[in-house]
Model the fold of this input.
Amino acid sequence: MGRLTKFDRMTAIDETMKFFWVKGYQNTSVRDLSEFVGVNAQSLYNAFGNKEKLYQLSLQHYVDEVGNFTQELIDRHLTTPELLKTLLIMDWETRDYPKGCMVINTLSEFETLPDDIHATVESLFNFFKTTFAQLIQNMPLTIPQETAIDLLLNTHNGIQVAVRDSNYPGDLDQLATDTVGLILGGEDHEITF
Done:
């Protein structure tokens, strides 16, 4: 991205989110962010404070974007199986975002999460668990609801790691389809997407 002619706080947060998402916290300097965003380092410090605060804001922005994207998917009136499959894969479609999940990257980068980062990570997981629970609450399930929710969340998290590898040997689309089918369909129901 070229230098911003006018400093826009939300654009800067969105751009820093993308940079942290790809490079991680440890491998990123404020100078790197400054060059990527197109704003001088002092402007970033003045607007956001230190690197840790900018990372926290970027991570919260990511969580907010997941919520916004999920709501867009819900508003499309997809069937429950289609929506679950789409959430498992979490393809950002027209958004210019990296593959994978910034939160999963965060978990793999920090040995111990700072409290504010931990709270943001937990908020995303709770969001997904609540969303999955709402989607499957009136569906015939082949396993207990809590088990289904945990299976959906863990499958989502695993897929978010795998999508970053362009040479991943598995068929992630089929994995998502089969996971949803196992939870909703069992052997007696044919689920079509």
Observations:
- Residues 82 and 193 are 6 Å apart (CA to CA).
